[in-house]
Amino acid sequence: AADRIGLFGVSGGAGTVVIASGEEPQVAAVWEDSGWGDIDVFMQDELAREGFPTFLSFGALLVGRLLHGVDLTALSPLKAVAALHGRPIYIVHGMADTRMPVKQAYLLADGVRQAGGTVDPWILPGVGHVRAAFLATAEYEQRLVDFFSRALGSPTS
Question: What 3-state class would DSSP assign to 122?
Fold first, then answer.
């Protein structure tokens, strides 16, 4: 049933499930772990992390559009959360994530709140990219089960 559809995504897949949820109103809930919210902000962070000037992100986006006809900014998890209209979203991120900085989780959470939704991100100190499920396994599992049980109902209901 449509009210029992939940999506789970990690890293790049997390951004994808948020976008899909924004596009498909029958998705009832989404779990997002270590994903991105704004590709431009992420590209600038990645360039800085690698020691390149951040203004190069503009050129990369332009080249994508001109040479390949791809607009990486056309679909965005940050834009998609506005279309959730209060549907539940769970955000997980590690504070020590150097691949996808935790600021992406805060951007998404702020976007959810600005759209009138509620969210309380689970930010884990000392945890790197997509490591929460491995370093806090029991708590991760319990939170995941509790979230989807509340959002979708129990498997027997």
Answer: strand
Burial of 115 per CB tally in 10 Å (0-12, 13-18, 19+): middle
Question: pLDDT, tens digit, for every residue of 5-51?
Answer: 999 999 999 999 999 999 999 999 999 999 999 988 888 888 998 99
Answer yes or no: is pLDDT of 71 > 80. yes
* Whole-number Å distance between alpha carbons of 130 and 134: 8
Give the model confidence (pLDDT) of 116-134 as tens digits: 999 999 999 999 999 999 9
Quickly count helices (H) and strands (E) in the chain: 7, 4
In 1-155, alpha helices (H): 12-23, 39-49, 56-68, 77-80, 103-114, 132-135, 137-152
Q: Is 119 helix (H, G, I), strand (E, B) or coil?
A: coil
Residue 33 CA to residue 60 CA, distance in Å, equals 26
Coil, helix or strand for 69? coil
**Alpha-carbon gap, residue 112 to 126, rounded angstroms:** 25
Reading the block at residue 152, the tokens are 């979708």
- By CB atoms closer than 10 A (0-12, 13-18, 19+), residue 45 is buried
